[in-house]
Amino acid sequence: MRMSARPQNVHQARLLRLLRDEGPRSRAELGDVVRLSRSKLAVELDRLVALGLVETAGLAASRGGRRSGIVRLSPALRFVAFDIGATSIDVAVTDGELEVLGHVSEPCDVRQGAMAVLDRALDLLGKLRDQGLVGQAHGTGIGVPGPVSFRDGMPVVPPIMPGWDRFPVRDAIGQELGCPVLVDNDVNLMALGELHSGLARSVGDFLLVKIGTGIGCGVVVDGAIYRGVSGSAGDIGHIRVDDDGPMCACGNAGCLEAYFGGAALARDAGEAARSGRSPQLAQLLERHGELSGGHVAEAAAAGDPVSVQLVREGGRHVGQVLAGLVSFFNPGLVIIAGGVAGLGHTLLAEIRSVVYRRSLPLATGNLPIVLSELAGQAGVIGGARLISDHTFAPA
Ligand SMILES: [Zn+2]
User: Ligand 1: distance of its center to the CA of 383 in Å?
Assistant: First the structure.
């Protein structure tokens, strides 16, 4: 296969995306969808076969008359995804249909800086290589936990990523791997993952709210990520909830993130532990030396009223901001994801109740608010989707 192979026109691009999203199809089915004559379709498919992107795979069951040949994406196609979070790093390899063939994940502090973290990502990719899962990648999608200039392929003044400002992530990794690379905000990748194989598969307009260390929102309009003019669309963590609220890492007071998210939860749980208000959290603090959102989830599940209250209050603040977003955007679905979404149904119930109470009935009448079901894979599937959208477009 020619690794630089790209479709040469919109018909070929459409065929590739269709085979990616729907799996192998007969020539007859493909012809129906892309509305090409039999002979024109044959020309485009032959070209894709010659490029090594597509192959024929036997005959389909007859629809009456001659049996139609099955076409599928080349099984040799590989996409790579790096999902870099504030406290973790995930690397995965997918096939052309974005099925995850291998996925490794480990704790990693993004504050170590771009060089150290990206080197680690390349090491993890090396592990997947050693397992024979990837030779040459066809493209790589990378997510980072901060604002990204999508056009330049680099983070721009990311608040929780010291040492990453304007680091040329796209170009550095592109040179290393010898394939096309795109870099985006991690929340946008998760939204793309949900669009490809999660709960948003049949939804064109939706919001994905990620509650991790911080809080962000992926905005999908008509099946595509909406990034705004400079790439910061969906940065809802710094919407102000209350002028007199706690100080935020961004320097302002009362941001949503200052109230809730992994960092705020750890702060509030620590306070509750040290003040003696929650014996359960105090015990967890003694055992682990520090507290995280996960510990609050654990204590809440064990019935600690202080932890349950922290989760409820957090859900209320998220719901308050989300109600405004729903009124403004009128989404068809809201997905709650990220590590803190592990707080589960107490959190979800609170968010739902605030949004349904505060938004207009016309906006919420048919609005599911749900927890992600992709369990940590949304980001890497989204990374593969991002780069495949690029490589399956005319050069
Ligand atoms: Zn802020």
Answer: 27
pTM of the model: 0.92
Q: What is the CATH number of the domain that holds 48?
A: 1.10.10.10
Q: Contact 388/196 with Cβ under 8 angstroms?
A: no
Residue 214 CA, ligand 1 centroid: distance in Å: 10
* Residue 208 structure tokens: 């994905």
- Return residues with CB closer than 5 A to ligand 1 (ion): 238, 248, 250, 252, 255
Contact between 212 and 160 under an 8 Å Cβ cutoff? The reply is no
C-alpha 105 to ligand 1 mean position (Å): 28
Instruction: Tell me: do 141 and 273 sit in the same domain.
Output: no
Provide DSSP, 118-160: HHHHHHHHHHHHHTTS-SS-SEEEEEESS-EETTTTEE-S-TT
- Residue listed under structure tokens 């056009």: 151
How many Å lie between the centroid of ligand 1 and the Cα of residue 254? 7
Q: Report the b/e string of 157-194 with b at 16+ CB within 10 A.
A: ebbbbeebeebebbebbbeebebbbbbbbbbbbbbbbb
What is the identity of the amino acid at 42?
A: A
248 Cα to the center of ligand 1, angstroms: 5
Give 270-323 pLDDT, tens digit per residue: 999 999 999 999 999 999 999 988 899 889 989 999 999 999 999 999 999 999
Residue 64 binned pLDDT confidence (cut-offs 50, 70, 90):
low
Same domain, 350 and 208: yes
* Spacing, Cα 70 to ligand 1 middle (Å): 53
Average pLDDT over residues 74-82: 96
State the distance from the centre of ligand 1 to the C-alpha of 253, rounded, in angstroms.
Answer: 7
Q: What is the pLDDT of residue 279?
A: 95
Q: What is the mean pLDDT of residues 39-63?
A: 87
Which structural domain, as residue segments, surrounds residue 34? 10-73
Q: How far is the CA of 117 from the centre of ligand 1 (A)?
A: 25
Q: How far is the CA of 340 from the centre of ligand 1 (A)?
A: 18
CA of 368 to the centre of ligand 1 (A): 28
127: CA distance to ligand 1 center in Å? 38
CA 110 to ligand 1 center in whole angstroms? 19
Lowest mean pLDDT among 30-44, 96-110, 340-354: 340-354
CATH classification of the domain holding 318: 3.30.420.40
Query: 155, 160, 84, 162: which is closest to 124 by C-alpha?
Result: 84
